Automatic annotation (TrEMBL):
This is GNAT family N-acetyltransferase. It comes from Flavobacterium aureirubrum. PROSITE patterns: GNAT (PS51186). InterPro entries: Acyl_CoA_acyltransferase, GNAT_dom. Residues 9-171 form the N-acetyltransferase domain.
Length: 175
């Protein structure tokens, strides 16, 4: 099991007990615009996903970890590596803290610190990237804190709330 420890949170591999938590996140329409989800997920599909969550990042091309407060095993969010490309040593990164009460508390920043370090030190990645809606100012601020640079804007990229919205592409190169 992958466990990455910080001062206030730790990252861990997904467990079968995370079914209800992931079900709630995947079916929260308020989050769909940041996850490109278009339809609800059944507990059956999420259970199948969790049964295969142990697979290696080199096999599945993604790694999803639960973000947990140090004093509990219960997940408060998820952080992902996706579009993992071992040949070109890059991956996309995404993060969500489910409950608004846990946002702006430093948990996302600490989780991102842990995953960036893991990506560069253990996976030997050369670069990370993230796709962020231009109106998602807290996420843009979070990623730029770590030196992610805006490398482009995808015009009218996402259709939500009956309108097209731009998306910024940010990138961090391991120097």
């Amino acid at each position: 099991m992958i466990t990455l420890q910080g001062n206030n949170i730790f990252l861990r591999a997904l467990e079968p007990d995370d079914l209800e938590f992931i079900y709630a996140i995947e079916n929260d329409e308020n989050i769909w615009e940041v996850s490109t989800t278009q339809t609800p997920y059944s507990k059956f599909l999420i259970r199948q996903y969790l049964e295969n969550a142990h697979q290696d990042i080199y096999e599945t091309k993604q790694l999803r970890l639960a973000i947990c407060k140090n004093n509990t095993f219960e997940a408060i969010g998820l952080i992902d590596l996706f579009d993992f490309d071992a040949k070109n040593r890059r991956a996309g990164i995404g993060i969500i803290i489910q409950n608004e009460a846990n946002r702006n508390s430093g948990f996302g920043k600490e989780a991102l610190t842990l995953l960036i370090n893991y990506s560069f030190q253990h996976l030997q990645l050369h670069q990370l990237f993230a796709n962020i809606g231009t109106k998602n100012l807290p996420s843009i601020a979070l990623f730029t804190t770590f030196g992610f640079e805006k490398i482009g804007v995808k015009k009218d990229w996402n259709y939500t709330h009956n309108a097209f919205h731009d998306e910024v592409l940010v990138q961090l190169i391991n120097k």
